[in-house]
Amino acid sequence: MEQKNNPMEKLVSLSKRRGFVFPSSEIYGGLGAIYDYGHYGTLLKNNIRDAWLKAMVQERDDVVSLDGAIFMSPKTWEASGHLASFDDPQVDCKKCRSRFRADHLLEDFGVNSDKAGLEFINAELNKLKDGGKLKCPNCGSKDLTEAKRFSLMVKSNLGSPTDELTEENVIYLRPETCGNIYLQYKNTLDSTSPKLPFGIAQVGKAFRNEIVARQFIFRTREFEQLEMQYFVFPQEVKNNYELWKQTRWDWYLSLGIKPENIRWYKHEKLAHYASEAYDIEYNFESLGGFKEVEGIHARGDWDLSQHSKFSGTDLSYFDEATKTRFVPHVVETSAGLGRLFLMVLDQAYTEEEVKEGESRTVLKFPPKLAPIKAAIFPLLKNKPELVAKAREVYNSLKSEFMCEFDDNGNIGKRYRRQDEIGTPFCLTIDFDSLEKDDVTVRDRDSMEQARIKISELKNYLRDRI
Ligand code: GAP
Predict the structure, then answer these.
(1) What mean pLDDT do residues 105-117 have?
(2) Domain ranges within the chain, ordered by starting residue
């Protein structure tokens, strides 16, 4: 029997209690919509990132890597259009001073204002105000400002530490990672000589001055993106787009995401240069429904053309076979690592009755994503021969598998703790182990136990991870 109440509160609380995610700068009162990842969170996040890199780079011969800097020439964002129009419509409550996204307020009344102008947004807000329906979600006051534009670009400055932040030295933290990919497209082409179609993939931090509602790590001001730009012949955009849609969908299934938990969302209103845009949405129990985790976009030749124009560097491609020169078109796949993390956590979180009157919380991660693959316990902490044998097993496994040695509390408590961390296998060394050279392996999900020879343990774990 499974049950989940207040799912978001439970995820937030477990994440902190078990060292997955902490509010940033908590001892100074915290920093809105910024989070730190603890030991198990870091391991889980890295496993998701590595699964993406394996599928997107290691297992393909048409995608190469990049690790670009966060600071980039401010011209980048002029060329991309971010400085002119990367903003959200903002509404303030005049009473409690809370700030909201106008499009989210409208969404609650079933009004879609995706890519709509301020005129449309304010007209819709006014209709709701006139009907007495629009209230501050925080304090209930009806005294709300008109919607105005709020830039998402995070400003900084580079220069001597005493410099004031002036318009001359202003620099931006990148709002998306793909900027580096466009700027290093030519160097990548010149240095690794890929033939079209080819992609450049990168994982890195991005920063946005989000107007946030409480959504934990779903929408943060500092986050990681997993982006890949696939450069294609202009006449081959359609089939490449379809291929990438399928490839990305399949990746979610390969991660262990249930097909009924994901769906496509088609963007009807597109940027002027785009020919197609779909999101993959996951049905977050913790957020009350389907929300975007990844976007797949056909972006035309907009980005390379704009950067050619603004930089004065020719970013066209010469095709030897047809002896033609042109600017490649781009199919982009763009996912947020924090959102993937929340998705994996959301699906894994389970409360179940173990036996009459006894329940447990368990994170049923797919073993390949689990932060800890195996926990090794001596049955009794005060029996040196059991502790020594357990250490021996732990030492033999830890170079291949992320393992944990645990001799705290009784076995029952250790199982509960490992369940909450999502460890798929718990290995106990008891007195029989000393004679028979075997251990008890307890499976996290079925809670069944089997005796496995120590010499067979690596194969046993490999087969299941
Ligand atoms: N280069 C295209 C791009 O950045 P996007 O839809 O703005 O497109 C892509 O972002 C993905 O990045 C989203 O699907 C989401 O997973 C993630 N993302 C965007 N903003 C985020 C935020 N504030 N916090 C966490 N993840 C975010």
Answers:
(1) 88
(2) 3-71+156-346, 87-151, 372-464
Packing angle, helices 39-53 and 337-348, rounded to 10: 110
Q: Hey, what CATH class is 372-464 in?
A: alpha beta
**Ligand 1 close to Cβ of residue 208 (< 6 A):** yes
Pocket test for ligand 1, best of 114, 291, 292 (most atoms within 8 A of CB): 292
In CATH terms, the fold of domain 3-71+156-346 is BirA Bifunctional Protein; domain 2 (3.30.930)
Rounded Cα gap, residues 189 and 363, in angstroms: 43
Q: How far apart are CA 103 and CA 442, in angstroms?
A: 49
Backbone φ, ψ for residue 249 (5° rounding) = -60, -45
* CATH class name, domain 87-151: mainly beta
The answer to whether the predicted template modeling score (pTM) of the entire model surpasses 0.90 is: yes
Residue 359: strand, helix, or coil: strand
**How much is the mean pLDDT over the chain?**
95
Residue position matching structure tokens 């603890």: 38
DSSP label at residue 2:
B
Is residue 202 within 6 Å of ligand 1 at its C-beta?
A: no
Sequential DSSP letters for 167-184: TTTEEEE-SSTHHHHHHT
Mean pLDDT over residues 99-118, rounded? 89
Same fold, 3-71+156-346 and 87-151: no
- Contact present, 35 and 21 (Cβ < 8 Å): yes
**The pLDDT value given to residue 115:** 78
- C-alpha distance from residue 205 to each of 73, 216, 351 (Å): 16, 17, 33
pLDDT band with cut points at 50, 70 and 90 for residue 2: very low
Report the percent of the chain where pLDDT is more than 70: 97
Q: What is the spatial distance between Cα 189 and Cα 308, in angstroms, rounded to a whole number?
A: 15
- The per-residue pLDDT for range 321-333, each reduced to its tens digit, is 999 999 999 999 9
Question: Looking at residue 372, what is its pLDDT?
Answer: 98
Ligand 1: does its nearest atom lie under 6 Å from the Cβ of 220? yes
Residue 52 has pLDDT above 50, yes or no: yes
